[in-house]
TrEMBL record:
Residues 22-164 form the NADPH-dependent FMN reductase-like domain. This is FMN reductase. Pfam families: FMN_red. It comes from the Bacteria. Gene3D superfamilies: 3.40.50.360. Keywords: Flavoprotein, FMN, Oxidoreductase. The gene is msuE.
């Protein structure tokens, strides 16, 4: 499933109108609702307080047999092709996963197996993960970052991880994680603004 783009504001504290940053979330969680998307929601809310953003979400577990049955890019249907292009054309890609057996889920990897090898070159990618405990945070550096290094993407230096104990249901409670999200986005705010405006 791919959600229609929506412009997110942040109430009275929202930034002045301007070119919207095209943010695409690739959600690798099979759960509905999920802690992973609860964490992403906080990321998007924080980002919307900095810049005008237009967001879309790709749920890889909802893309169906047209996606799971494709072995190569030439095999995909027009609908899946449009979804792949949505990710490839983002200004900021948010790669969001639950840790599964020490790595990312298989359908999340399958999605990126179909992405063009050079489509993500120099694209900003924010890495987001959830897991059962703090030891699962290693997936960010040992699995996700190498995946996007292959694509020559620009991964945001500060990645975001939250463990099960940081949530009440799917609501993120831990203020330390909120602070890390703020830090991660503030570090690249100028880059994000440049991508939104098309500045060199």
């Amino acid at each position: 499933m791919t959600t229609a783009p929506s412009v997110i504001g942040a109430g009275p504290a929202a930034p002045a109108a301007g070119p919207a940053l095209r943010v695409v979330v690739v959600n690798g969680s099979p759960s509905r609702p999920s802690k992973t998307m609860g964490l992403v929601d906080v990321v998007l809310e924080t980002l919307a307080g900095m810049l005008p953003v237009e967001t879309s979400r790709i749920d890889v577990y909802a893309l169906g047999e047209e996606f799971t049955g494709a072995v190569e890019r030439d095999d995909v249907t027009p609908g899946v092709e449009a979804t792949l292009r949505l990710a490839e054309n983002a200004d900021l890609l948010i790669a969001a996963i639950p840790v599964y057996r020490g790595s990312y889920p298989g359908l999340f990897k399958h999605f990126f197996d179909l992405v063009d090898q050079y489509a993500l070159a120099n694209k900003l990618v924010l890495l987001v993960a959830t897991g059962g405990g703090e030891h699962h945070a290693l997936v960010l550096e040992h699995a996700l970052r190498p995946l996007f290094a292959f694509f020559q993407a620009l991964t945001v230096p500060v990645a975001i991880f939250a463990s099960a104990g940081d949530f009440d249901g799917t609501i993120l409670l831990n203020p330390r994680i909120h602070g890390r999200i703020q830090l991660a986005l503030t570090d690249v705010k100028d880059l994000l603004h440049a991508r939104a405006t098309g500045a060199p």
